[in-house]
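Hey, I'm writing a tutorial for new members on how sequence and structure tokens pair up, and I'd like a real worked example in the thread rather than a made-up one. If someone can provide the structure for the chain below, I'll link this post from the tutorial.
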Amino acid sequence: MFTIQHAKIHFNEENTPVSDKFDDVYFSNQDGLAETHYVFLEGNQLWERWVNYQEAHFVIAETGFGTGLNFFAVTTLFREFRHKYPDSPLKRLYFISFEKYPLPLDALRQAHLAYPQFSRLALHLQQHWLNPIQGCYRFHFDETTLDLWFGDVAENLPQLGDYMNGKIDAWFLDGFAPSKNPDMWNERLYQQMFRFTKFQGTFATFTAASAVRKGLETAGFDMTKRKGFGKKRECLSGQKTHEKLTALSAPWFHSQPANLKEQDIAIIGGGIASLCTAISLVKRGAKITIYCEDEQTALNASGNKQGAFYPQLSDDNERNIRFYIHAFAYGHQFLQWATQQQIEFEHELCGVSLCAYNEKAESKLNKIAELNLPSDLYQSLSQTELSEKIGLPLPFGGGFIPQGAWLAPRQLVQHAFAFLEKQGVQIKRSQKVTALSQTELGWQLKTAENETFSHELVVLANGHKLTEFEQTQKLPLYPVRGQVSQIPTSENLLKLKTVLCYDGYLTPVDQAKASHCIGASHVRDNATREFSLTEQQENQQKIQQNIPEDWTKEVDTSGNLARIGVRCSVRDLTPMMGAVPHFSAQQTQYQNLFNLRRRKQPIGQATNYPNLYLIGALGSRGLTSAPFLGETLASLIYGEPLPMSEDLIHNLMPNRSWVRRWLKGAEVK
């Protein structure tokens, strides 16, 4: 389920990559780029369509990413279009590609040497290339966004989900020839293609095989035969000229895009969730106003001096593991972006060590090992190996996440918000929003000072206070108090080379070589922010009990330096992201959901509050999950492709706990 096999290839006399498995070239020996332009770009009439296009984004989907040649060519063409028509409504290009056997990095680099005109694009792709697990990875190339789905297209394509019905403008039906790769070219593929294609959307392919033509015709496409490229006699293109009704598989989770005219968006909250959502919305041209109830941003759960950045792998929920792995990969891109923008924040890509400090922890780590994750994501280490990795003796082995890190959350959030202010984002500090009321044009916000502000759309990102509004009070969220202790360094603690996780965590020394962070306490249903001597002492006792080594005796919390934050959590420990559900309306719709499904009666789409969204319940993993969630929410608001599979999206929906009960025939109060 997780593992992806790399392609095995060789290069022929023309230096064209050839698949060992399929015994077929990745692109034409004659001129692969010319073939791409003729078959796919001209076959889908991209330039002519872009000139007359009236929407803000255009979506292309491709079967078979290969070396990325088609992507490079269309990205370059789109940049030429944007340069020639800067005032066009069309601003962004989405390129969705499916690849079962990705090239290893060295082969990718060699293949890219054939097209030096794409060297900058190729280098950017190579810098972000990874050993993936199955699913979608999003990469940004300025105005073009690449969603790479690794794994079998037969499994991944349906995971675009009901959300993507009728949203793809053009298809590049590529991949190895039907005679070499018959498993890909089949009726299911063509039917899914038709389902996801926009009315008047098109496809183009290099082949004219009769089975392919008949399959696409049967699926519903109108067909056109064109002269083939090079030695090929013919190739096919086609168009969707009529619709077929497609029943929604889960209408209770279905979201419509927001209705935006002015792109005037308010975000309530001043932490990492608010920040990441704002960054992704600003990139789409939104006008953003932040409402922060504190005198500064990042004063609550996002305000620690040091925080760990790594994926949650020890969960028994397989979907959560996949979510966090993909969030972790996207989070790395976010940190690189922040560094490139010269947003200053202390951080160290030192790795994160997970200790098998008791039988339960050891069992969890054994389960992670059984996932067979790529070694650059997770490694099982012996006692000797883990001790060497952290730089201090341990009485047990465990696991290691090489790409994990620590970073300074408050610095990151505050400096990134300062960067956004220079981009035109308005931040209203010391402004507590107490009520929301719907208006004809959007939403009116009322503050504790009895001021009112109006915005077209509102995103709630205010952590454990999410349920303080009438519209959200039924969401099953709860506060979790956490106290993080700041301790002085010592002769041995200075040797700590990685973040160390046990029944708590300890960070390596900060960049001033003065202190570490250790914690954190976990007090459910508690939103107090006063210092606790008991929790301070417990933070010290945990590491000394879990790791009975002499060096842990140097951990000293007696200086009573600490920071208290209140996290927002939910019972299933999965973040919430999406449209705010209208509880009373959905209860009327779905309280008989069990019987409606059993009787196969029609089930309507969920009623949500228009232009009201939330991102929350990030728990103690906000640094890892917030960038991915913020980007996904921005895509959802703008009706763009989403960078994760449908089952993960459904797992994040704010109404999921209600729906689970309604599906069982249980009551929701």
